[in-house]
Amino acid sequence: KNELLGQEFQLNWAWISLEYDSYEINETEKYLNIKLSRRGYLGETSFVSVKTKNVTAKEGEDFGKHYAKQVQFSPGQTEAYWRLRILNDSLFEDSEEFEILLQEPVMAAIEYPDKATVTILDKEDGEESNLKFSTKISYTCTQL
Q: Where is the Calx-beta domain (predicted)?
């Protein structure tokens, strides 16, 4: 029997989260910058994996497929940024969505918001879908 009487057991832990649970970005912007926050015990280096999940937007077509798979927090660091390329295609399309997920923490735990929905807006397409006439048009219908 092994006992350590009178010994205090303490866990020091950091908590990592996204700044928001939803983001919007115009398709013409080149990069989406996501802020991650860390709180709690900051005395050790912590890591968290970042993954994307296709919804209506597709990796490699609407947003980049090459991005940092992990974000590191050095001792004392409370904020870090993750960056993703947004691809501007020439397709006429509505807004599209994908998700960002935090996973696999090291020396930390994940807290809400741990995932976010990103909406890619295509404002230029919305402008092209409007039909405008600069002059008044009139017509007469006659019955045959």
A: 4-103
